[in-house]
Every structure is written in structure tokens, then in C-alpha cells.
Amino acid sequence: MSFIRASHLSRTFKSVKKKEGLKGTFELLFNPQHQEHKALDDVSFEIEAGAFVGLIGANGAGKTTLLKILSGLIPPTSGTAEVLGENPFKRSLSFRKNISLVMGQKAQLWWDLPALDAFELIRAIYEIPEKTYRDRLGMLAELLDVTKLFQTQIRRLSLGERMKMELIGALLHWPKVIFLDEPTIGLDVLAAHKLREFLRDFNSREKATIILTSHNMEDIERLCSRVMILKTGKLLYDGKPQGLTQSGERQLKITLLETPLVSDVAALTGLAPEQISLKGGEDAEELANTNHLWLTIKNDQIAHTLQKLLGRYTISDMGIQGQSLERVIQKIYESESAAGSRT
Fold it and tell me: Cα 232 vs. chain centroid, distance in angstroms?
């Protein structure tokens, strides 16, 4: 069963265009000109029950707009969305009781209340039975290790502690679909790790359908069984993370006794300059004292490349690893930008 379905979703925003200077101000008052920005452009997909989906894209790619449409906060300009068999923008009572939206950059609990009082208000709003509420609160507090903070005002908590409380508040009514917009933004390494562990455990236990947006590739790699990549409102990729990284490419990390130049290594090995980088930067003049090579190459190129390098340089250390998801996504964006510049 598809819990979430989007069909040819598009969303356009209009804004007033202002020219510079006093003349531009008068034109804005008496003859305003508008410009359009397409945040989503013909996006279609289906998501099954219990899926954990990572939504990736640069700032302005349309991630938050898509979550707002699916959660019913804004309507699409064209196309249709369906969540739990309903039109999200109608915001029916049954729909609102079964979804939750957590935005990492926006507080949703009452800042001046202690966390426990805020949770009691949520219990009353969603009409959660007392025993069910206590059981859920106890389980969530144990998973996130925050019981000792329940009497502290929300505004006095650290960012990591506040995000944990926001998650508890968003999950007390046991939603079937959870939208998470940058939930680990601004968190330290330990807090982000604990939050990821909690989300993985909750998804596994309760079979909740989760869509997560994040700029942190570790969030995506550790949590998501499916990845959707947006760029300027268009859906570039929809599939398993392994489908992105299993391209046969490897990163060959080599430490030399000599100090190479990218141009010399490219001429020697036959690799393209963009396949070669020197640890610490991209510009050869800035890296005159750098002897760490990072080569992005296919499996069948490794032996030939090493043979060529050994014929000229002395290798003191080396290692081979798979392509990171972050690097693969970066390459997808770069190739799309290059294709766009040629048209």
C-alpha cells in the first residue's frame, strides 16, 4: 500500500521584483513587477508504508516546500498529493491525527513551559488516553534519555535537548507518517548520533513512514533505505543509496615521499585532472608542499595507475575505499550543472 503519493507536483511562488534606487521604489509602489520562482517542477513518486526516505538537495532545491505540501501547510500549484489516502491540504481531523512535521530550525513547543507541561497539553489536544500517554512518554523518554529534563523550561534547554523534546512532542500521538526537516541541524556529534539511533529504533519498532531532509550525509547513509535527490525543484534520483555508490568507482588514497602536481599526475597516469585532488585544497599552487593524492578511479584502472606512479614516485602509504554518498551526490549536481550550461 502506498502511504504517500505525488503526481506531477509543481509549486510556483510569486515575488515582487524591485529595481535599484529611488526610481525602483516608486515603480514598486505604482507599477510593481512580479517574478516567479518554481520551487517544485513536475515531481512524481510513491512511498510505501514503513519506509525511511532521505530527501536530499541544496538550499532552494524544494525539499521543505515538498514537505509542506505533503503535510498540508501549502497547496501545490499543479499536480496532486495524497497522504494516507487523503488530500493533505484539506487538513481533515483524521489526517492531522496521523501525521507529524518536525522542523529543526523552528520551535513548535511552548518555550516558557516545562517540557512535561507542554506534553500534557499535547495529550489533551490529541485526546490521548492517560495510560497510553504515560506508556508512550515513558518509552520515548527512555529512548532519548531526557526524563531528568522534564521540569525544565523549553527555552532553557540546549539545542540538542530541545530537539529531543520536539521529537517527543511530535510523536506522542503515534503518527503513521513523520516528516523531519533537518532534525540534526546544529547538533553536536554525540547529540546527532543519539537522535539518529532513536529515529532508527522508532522506525523499526513502530513501522512509521518517515521522510527526512538533511544536509548531513551521515544521517542519510545510516538511516535511509531510499534516497530522493532534488535540484531546483526537479527530482534527479529516486532509489536505494547503494544504487548511487555502487558505480565501480573507488577512492585511491596515496601518500608519496615526493611532492606532485595535479598536472604531472594527470599526464603520467592518463587520468583527467578532475579525477585527481591533493589533500588540503584544489589549487596546485597552494599545495606545493602537499604529498597526499586522492584519485577517483574505476576498479580496472587501479593496477595501471599504481604501476605508473611507482615508476616515477615513491609511495609510502596507500588505501582504497568506496565512493562516499556525499561525493557521489556532489558529482551528480556537478554533471547536471555542466549539462545545463551547455544547453
Answer: 15
Q: Cβ distance 107 to 185 under 8 Å?
A: no
C-alpha radius of gyration, the chain, whole number: 25
- Asked whether 234 and 44 are in contact (CB, 8 A), the reply is no
Q: Which of 72, 4, 67, 22 is nearest to 40 (CA)?
A: 67
d(CA 54, CA 265): 37
CA proximity to 220, closest of 194, 188, 249, 242 = 242
Q: What is the dihedral of CA 110, 168, 96, 238, to 10 degrees?
A: 120
Domains within the chain, CATH numbers bracketed: 2-19+37-244 (3.40.50.300), 248-322 (3.30.70.1150)
For residue 49, what are the contacts with CB-CB under 8 A and spacing of at least 6? 1, 3, 176, 207, 209
pLDDT in tens, 107-140: 788 889 999 999 999 999 999 999 999 999 998 8
DSSP 284: T
Residue pLDDT, tens place only, 19-37 = 777 776 767 777 777 778 8
